[in-house]
Amino acid sequence: MSETYRNPLRDPLDRRLPRMAGPSALVMFGVTGDLSRKKLLPAIYDLANRGLLSPGFGLVGFARRDWAAEHFAAVVREAVEENCRTPFRTDVWQQLLEGIRFVPGELDDDEAFQTLAATLAELDRAQGTGGNHAFYLSVPPRAFDTVISQLKRHHLAGDENDRELGRWSRVVIEKPFGHDLASARELERNVSAAFESQSVFRIDHYLGKETVQNMLAFRFANELFEPIWNRTYVDHVQITMAEDIGIGGRAGYYDGIGAARDVIQNHLLQLLALTAMEEPTSFAAEQLSAEKQKVLAATRPGRDLAQDAVRGQYLAGWAGGRYVKGYLEEEGIPPDSRTETYAAIRVDIDNRRWAGVPFYLRAAKRLPRRVTEVALILKPAPHLPFARTDSSGLGSNALVMRIQPDEGIALRFGAKVPATGMELRDVTMDFGYGRSFAESSPEAYERLILDVLLGDPPLFPRPEEVESSWAILDPVLEHWADSDESPQGYDSGSWGPECARQMLARHGRVWRRP
Ligand code: BG6
Question: What are the E-state strand segments in 130-176?
Answer without folding.
Answer: 133-137, 169-173
